[in-house]
Design a protein that fits this description.
The structure is a single chain. By secondary structure, this protein is mainly α. The protein has three domains: 68-138, no CATH class; 183-286, Cyclin A, domain 1 (Orthogonal Bundle), CATH 1.10.472; 296-421, Cyclin A, domain 1 (Orthogonal Bundle), CATH 1.10.472.10. The protein is built from 18 helices and no strands. It has helices at 37-41, 68-89, 95-108, 119-135, 141-145, 165-176, 193-209, 214-230, 238-253, 260-266, 273-286, 296-306, 311-323, 335-349, 356-363, 367-382, 391-396, 412-421. The longest helix has 22 residues, at 68-89. The chain is globular, with a radius of gyration of 26 Å. The relative contact order is 0.12. Belongs to the cyclin family. Cyclin AB subfamily. InterPro entries: Cyclin, Cyclin-like_dom, Cyclin-like_sf, Cyclin_A/B-like, Cyclin_C-dom, Cyclin_N, Cyclins_cyclin-box. Residues 1-50 are annotated as: Disordered. It comes from Gulo gulo.
């Protein structure tokens, strides 16, 4: 098996010998309070050209190239301009007035002009009726079903994609049916669930080292699991599989992904470039080049926005969900359900259980169906992290992540009372 991430010293001239296991390093002990966590570990690799990514991403996936205040002002001006154009040019909003003006203009013409008044309504009626039904705040069927606030009725910020948000997440839940994972360790003869846990723990460290998004991390783990479900892998190729899956996920999610040589370097150069390219081809062919796999992190951000949760609550749910990545027992759980269970437990831990009905509405899962999963997640938080699997715990114990690991898990009896009350 491969070696851990290289130390902060310069790259050695001679290659290190291969090791039989992945040993992730622990970054949480030497950090100073208030310093950026990712800046501490980025010195272990050569400086990269890609722009540094902030620890917290905006829930909207909005671009950070300009200040937030300028974005708001620009969006307001954009909405004002669009609303003026709609009010001035849309026949459906002022059809009667335009007809009167047209009649007067026709009277002033010296020569009679034949105007077909039936064509305009026939052409504009359908698209305008659809637009008005979308933009207007009239009572829809969904609002009749529940009194909850429609979070997608805000059209002032185009980065939210409010028109397509529900369709996007409905489509993602439909795609979950295509990417259902099954237990595969009984087919693997040379690797175990413990080796997989060490690999995922190392991938979390890689994600922090390269300062890549959490979407890339979640997708890389999904690619590894789907590949192992179809192909038998040897233990000496397990880290090659993980690093190559991370390379593919970075190409899919990142605007500036690392190159192949960077991933070879973090593997301590125990693999050749041709080996990684061959593994990349094997993964893509095994998955039939369909790597747009729904991940739990997308649903977490959606639930947080719908419930207007604070960043600390979202970070706590992210910590709970990220702890499950290295646990083989959660492989079969759907991404949307895992995200809903993690977020529900975070609400209970933050004493926000009264928001559970809203989560039930937006997630599509009944809270009663999530109770067994919530109990398992709470039990997972009570377990003491293994010495080889401390990266996630040390990551979220930093001040940048609100030190959410210090929030104690719920007592099982108290959790039972909360679940029975709901």
């Amino acid at each position: 098996m491969p070696l851990p991430l290289p130390s902060q010293s310069s790259k050695p001239e001679t290659k290190k010998s291969q090791s039989s296991k992945i040993v992730p390093s622990d970054h949480g002990q030497s950090e100073k309070r208030g310093e950026n966590y990712q800046a501490k570990i980025s010195s272990s690799l050569p400086k990269r050209r890609c722009k540094k990514r902030s620890a917290f991403e905006d829930l909207t996936n909005a671009s950070q190239s300009q200040p937030a205040q300028l974005k708001k002002e620009a969006n307001k001006e954009f909405v004002k301009d669009v609303s003026k154009k709609i009010k001035g040019n849309t026949p459906a909003l002022g059809l009667a007035k335009n007809n009167e003006m047209n009649k007067e203009s026709y009277k002033l013409e010296p020569s009679p002009v034949v105007v077909s008044t039936t064509l305009v309504p026939n052409i504009m009626e359908k698209p305008l009726s659809l637009e008005i039904s979308t933009i207007s705040k009239t009572t829809t069927t969904e609002e009749q079903i529940t009194p909850l606030e429609d979070i997608d009725n805000n059209y002032s910020d185009p980065f939210f994609n409010p028109i397509y948000a529900k369709d996007i997440f409905s489509y993602m839940k439909e795609r979950e049916e295509k990417f259902i994972l099954k237990k595969y360790m009984n087919r693997q003869t040379d690797i175990s669930s413990d080796m997989r846990a060490i690999l995922v723990d190392w991938l979390v460290e890689v994600q922090m080292t390269f300062e890549m998004s959490h979407e890339t991390l979640y997708l890389a783990v999904k690619l590894v699991d789907h590949y192992l479900m179809e192909v038998v892998c040897k233990r000496d190729k397990l880290q090659l599989l993980g690093s190559t899956a991370f390379l593919i996920a970075a190409k899919f999610e990142e605007s500036c992904p690392p190159c192949v040589d960077d991933f070879l370097y973090i593997c301590d150069d125990i693999y050749q470039r041709d080996e990684m390219l061959t593994m990349e081809i094997s993964i893509l062919q095994t998955l039939k080049f369909d790597i747009n796999i729904p991940i739990a992190y997308h649903f977490l951000r959606r639930y947080a926005r719908c419930l207007r949760a604070s960043m600390k609550t979202l970070t706590l749910s992210r910590f709970i969900c990220e702890m499950t990545l290295q646990e083989y027992d959660y492989v079969q759980e759907r991404a949307s359900k895992l995200a809903a269970g993690s977020f529900l437990l975070a609400l209970y831990m933050k004493k926000l259980g009264h928001r559970a009905p809203a989560l039930e509405y937006y997630s599509g899962y009944k809270t009663s169906d999530l109770h067994p999963l919530v109990k398992q997640l709470n039990t997972l938080l009570t377990l003491r992290p293994c010495n080889k699997l401390k990266t996630v715990h040390s990551k979220y114990s930093h001040q940048v992540f609100f030190e959410v690991t210090k929030i104690p898990p719920l007592d099982m009896l108290k959790l039972e009372e909360m679940l029975n009350y709901c």
